[in-house]
Amino acid sequence: MKLPRLLATLLAFSALGASAQDKVLNLYSARHYQTDEALYANFSKQTGIKINRIEAKEDELLERIRNEGANSPADIFITVDAARLAKADELGLFAPVKSKLLEERIPAHLRSTDWFAFSTRARVIVINKDLVKAEDAQNYEDLANPKLKGKVCSRSGAHPYNISLMSALIAHIGEAKAEQWARGVVANFARAPKGGDTDQIKSVAAGECGVAVSNTYYLARLLRSEKADDRRMMDRITIVWPNQKSQGAHINISGGGMLKTAPNKESAVKFLEYLASDDAQRYFADGNNEWPAVPSVVVKNAALDAMGKFKADVLPVATLAKNAVAAQRIYDRAGWK
Ligand code: FE
Q: Which of 49, 76, 108, 215 is the most exposed place for a label (fewest CB within 10 A)?
């Protein structure tokens, strides 16, 4: 028997009411790893909450959330790099999340009141041993040493990974010394900045430059690569964990937060808490060859293990964001394009 159209419409609307409200989660993600599929499917299985996912580049997603304004369906925004998360925060997009579970699981230096890190990556030094002695490139500061003249390759100073590295240096050695450092590195460039981290690794392996910095997951990806050429390339480079006698290797993050306009706030908090669970931590971190943010969770990843143990900088990642503007100005003044 057919229901009168009006009644059917009313029933449909009530189904969208309070009871159904928490059964959906709208996720805007700048991550796009195959293993994330299993990560999300597992959440739906555990909670019955269906995930609608929109994947795009960070800036596109931020733009979209801003344009959608109060009507945005987005509940959660996930991206990489502390400076980018902080940018979303500065734009007032995140809502503070108070969760005992998240406070207990995620170390204090890997979260702010508005967003949480779920995995970490380190920014390390890579050298071509035929061109640079390992002892001459043990610290980020060494990259400015005139000994390395004509040997340093880099990606753009405007890239978030380098902005965050500079932000950490500002926190540790102050703005004046950080600027001196930037000028020293620029004076050592083998060529003008170009490409991404993988391009720097390739250039070091090819001998176009002697030293560069890279995020660890790019190195792990090449170590795990099915292409023999990639693995041969890794044979030609040496990874140095920077600043092991001082603050430790600079750490950046993947993370996310709940949006202020989130229509499904309860689901959103559940999802953030889920990402801090043992299983999710493994998926989330290992999917991109990163380390879990929750210290008790251990990932078995041969490529990461092969890189060895290291001392990580425990500078609060929220500090990276605070220094981001000063960091960009320093790169501009130093001519690190
Ligand atoms: Fe990256």
A: 108
